[in-house]
Amino acid sequence: MNPIKRIQGMQDILPEEWRYWNYVLDKGHELARLYGFERLDIPIMEKHELFERGIGTTADFFVQKEMYTIEEKKGAITLRPEFTAGVMRAYIQNGMSSWTQPVKLYLIGPIFRRERPQAGRFRQHHQFNCEILGEDDPAADVEVMMLALNLYRELGYKGLSFQLNSTGCKTCRPAYVEKLRDYLSQYVEQLGATDQERLTKNPLRVLDSKDKNVQPLLEDAPHLADHLCEDCATHFTDVQTMLQVLDAPYTINFRIVRGMDYYEKTVFEVLAQGIGAQSAVCGGGRYNLAPEIGGSSLPGVGFGSGIERIILGLKEAGIEPPAVPQPTVMIAHFGGETKVAAVKLAFELRQLGIGTRVAFARGKRSLKSQMREANNREVSYVVLLGEDELARGEVVVRPMDDRPQTTLPYADLVAYLTAD
Predict the structure, then answer these.
(1) Strands across the sheet containing 280-287
(2) Which residues does residue 133 pair with via DSSP β-bridges, in sequence order?
(3) Residues in CB range of 267: below 8 A, 6 or more apart
(4) 0.70 exceeded by the pTM?
């Protein structure tokens, strides 16, 4: 019988990987709290209508049918393909509008997209998201941008900078979209099938085309920043002024538009050096999503960062996270009463905060075998419990370095193990 394997695009996070995961997650929690964000958790499944209305029918992965949807008697439900729509639903449903504004939330968890698996991206992958809701001040944009930048900076990434753009608003964007559509229509035969579909449904997404044949055509495309209304232009200028004051390097890139329909005004990506071809490590921007899902107008701004992508970048940059502490003691025994005593001693040492392993064996197990395991597990000490030592109330401690082994009274063991 053939062994069952995991589903393509999924992953097993093995124990040796958790030193990377804990390093990233601990830093994310620390920074979010430092900036005054509170943790929110939302269901991994929502009504399909939430994403259909909230994300928009021209969002990239919606067009490509990348959502996992289950048909049920009361309507379709979908595994969340992103966080923002669910955050907005939770804000409205839980009456967060009555809280002190703005509401600052962060989330960590899996999202699901039926996409082609690639390096650092899986059909189930995990994100760290931060959102500021109920505030249209450009300073809020800068705050989430700097939180994202500082996350990568404190993890050890180098050469960090922003790619920045404004996608305007419902007042100024439609006229620009028509100008862009007119420009791109001259080259429709040179566009691939995906970009032709984008041209029909959302021309802005053509600006983000990865097609090498299309990219030269975009060099002379009109820039949205040149067609902003007064409010959007002032907002964009204020964001840039604050980034300059903070010495945060940025480049205006008119092709940064992001993949969701709900973005307006500020959009950005964080770029890093020394991590291979995929230099964009996270992105986000400003949005007003609430009216699309039945709420009142509510400004929001946030970012999402893929944890797997962060970890891949750490490895590519040669950044080693701290090692996960392992038990420093292993107790060897000879079965019978010595095994019972070993189990008791292990629990006593753990209660005192001393990481301890016990050599398992249903019957007798050779000391050589137990010492081999201790060496493989890189413990610092092996505590030997034999029948004679047990009768005398003693233990033999064998350091796993060059120091000689010693026999101690049972009562002196903790002091010996913690003397270093």
Answers:
(1) 38-39, 103-112, 124-133, 300-306, 280-287, 263-273, 158-166, 250-252
(2) 103, 300
(3) 164, 165, 166, 167, 256, 257, 258, 283, 284, 285, 286
(4) yes
First to last CA, the chain: 53
Report the DSSP pairing between strands 38-39 and 103-112: parallel
DSSP 299-362: -EEEEEEEHHHHHHHHHHTTPPPPPPP---EEEEE-SHHHHHHHHHHHHHHHHTT--EEE---S
- Residue pointed to by tokens 């500082």: 150
Least confident of 67-71, 189-193, 244-248, 355-359: 189-193
Give, in order, the Cα–Cα distances in Å from 345 to each of 140, 325, 374, 410. 55, 20, 17, 10
Write the DSSP string, 362-387. SS---HHHHHHHHHHTT-SEEEEE-H
**Average of per-residue pLDDT across 226-251:** 96
Domain residues of the chain, as ranges?
Answer: 15-172+228-316, 329-417
- Our CA dihedral for 95, 101, 104, 107, rounded to 10 degrees, sits at 10
List the 77-79 sheet strands across, edge first: 45-47, 77-79, 69-70
Instruction: Please give the CATH superfamily to which domain 329-417 belongs.
Output: Anticodon-binding domain (3.40.50.800)
Q: Where are the beta strands (DSSP E) in 40-174?
A: 45-47, 69-70, 77-79, 103-112, 124-133, 158-166
pLDDT at position 41 is: 98
Instruction: Report how far residue 243's alpha carbon sits from residue 44's, in angstroms, rounded to the nearest whole number.
Output: 35
* Predicted confidence (pLDDT) at residue 219 exceeds the cutoff of 60: yes
Mean pLDDT of 347-357: 96
pLDDT tens column, 34-46: 999 999 999 999 9
CATH number among 3.40.50.2300, 3.30.930.10, 3.60.10.10, 3.40.50.1400, domain 15-172+228-316: 3.30.930.10
Alpha-carbon torsion 150, 151, 153, 158, what sign? negative
Strands 280-287 vs 263-273: parallel, antiparallel or unpaired = antiparallel
Interatomic CA distance for residues 242 and 248, integer angstroms: 9
**Cα(76)–Cα(55) distance, integer angstroms:** 16
- pLDDT of 262 higher than 90: no
Q: How many CA atoms lie within 13 A of 112 on its CB side?
A: 15
